[in-house]
Amino acid sequence: MNARSLRSQYQHAVWVAVVAFLIGVGAPARADDKDAGAPKSTLPACVQVTTESRYVPYGYNHIVTIRNGCSRDATCVVSTDVNPKPESVEVPTAKAVEVATFLGAASSVFVAKVTCALR
Length: 119
Prior knowledge:
It is built from 1 helix and 6 strands, in the order H-E-E-E-E-E-E. By secondary structure, it is an alpha+beta fold.
């Protein structure tokens, strides 16, 4: 090997090390960072909320499901970042209610905001 080839290999190794260092320098992920962009919901502990995007021709239907495991009925208000208009729904004890917040959306991604109060 000549000096020029060794210098080229050295420079390549240095660049690889610099890139690897820069990739690893980012702030460490914390457990509470995963939902940092999602709005906080106020829910009783016995109410569960799930979201789902159902593919249909021409887009996605955004569905929010609220399950009431409480001993009392719940009144919930549902909105999303795609459809910020709040919708009120009644969720009886030991039942689940599906709320279609948007039909035929271009994107499957949405964030739901749900607040519930027991009656």
